[in-house]
Amino acid sequence: xxxxxxxxxxxxxxxxxxxxxxxxxxxxxVRRYGAIDNTLTALDKVVRKLVSTGGRLxxxxxxxxxGYGLYRHLTAQGFDCDVVAPSMxxxxxxxxxxxxRRDACNLARLDRAGELTPVYVPRAEDEAIRDLxxxxxxxxxxxxxxxxxxxxxxxxxxxRYAGAASWSAAHWRWLSDITMDHPGQQIVLxxxxxxxxxxxxxxxRLTDQIQQMVAHWRMSEVVTALQALxxxxxxxxxxxxxxxxxxxxxxxxxxxxxxLGLVPSEHSSGEKTRRGSITKSGNTHVRRVxxxxxxxxxxxxxxxxxxLKRQEELxxxxxxISWKAQVRLCSRFRQLWAKGKPKQVVVTAxxxxxxxxxxxxxxxxxxxxxx
Length: 371
Hints:
The protein is α/β, with parallel strands linked by helices. It has 3 domains: 5-113, Nucleotidyltransferase, domain 5, CATH 3.30.420; 124-215, no CATH class; 220-362, no CATH class. The protein is 52% helix and 11% strand. The chain has helices at residues 40-52, 69-76, 100-113, 124-156, 169-176, 183-215, 220-226, 234-244, 253-259, 284-294, 305-310, 316-338, 343-362, and strands at 5-12, 16-23, 31-37, 56-62, 80-84, 264-266, 275-278. The chain has a 5-stranded mixed β-sheet. Helix 10 packs across helix 13 and helix 12 packs antiparallel against helix 13. The longest helix is centred in the middle third of the chain and has 33 residues, at 124-156. The two termini are 32 Å apart. The relative contact order is 0.08.
């Protein structure tokens, strides 16, 4: 094989793939190969032609709805392949023309210049657990919307619940005693109630499946260790690990904070330093569960019965990090609250530091290298 490289940019769509090729060297012209069907058979045919020309092949395409099938197929054959985030691809400010051919050529050119940053591609097993956690999140969203529809329906007819807490056993009994004026309205009421019940059952089914699948997952020890932290339940831990992968791939907790978009934005120039809200540039799923977990630190530091049960048979170092996190974050919550900071600002600050303690715990756990 010759000592030059061929950079192959692919603009991937549902039914087609536009391909462009750039030879090694920064001044060579990028040429269009053409469009092919988005099938592995068609891609293999192109690969065989490119291999016959000699040189080292390096493929790149943007992450999108088609997933990582092309990446896994190419890497399984021993080829270099990168997946890049569309938002991280450099673009000229004055460029107002966009089509598949230009996108493929741009990817090949930038990859040859070394200006593309690949995203983390999860293993197939990790992606399956991620699908489970996202499906549960969708089910919880559907449940929330179903409850809101029922409340809105009752409010239109001035049917109000006088109890203390909604969706309690007393609230469900009250719903079953409601009699609407028209038979059609009674049917609508019952359908809304049944919709909530079905969504709740979906949430329970998916939660059970997550618990069963995580027990046989290669990252199960990390998920168990993270639950030593206050507010980090099975769902929070599984979501974090499934979305991020191995936390040890980050060299520092600050790098993890930046990856999750939990660091403040900044627009500074000269002697002026201006910081704004968080960047929100990272994974929204992890950021959401960490924010929910951060609310538990509004209470005084304490190892309750549930937390003590989760810490059984865990290493002493992990439990020590958990207690250090409680002392630090509970105190931090009170300090920020006393300064008059808004609730969301306080919770976001706690979530940012919480992910640092999760990073520290993950470093204490050895992850099996085999799947």
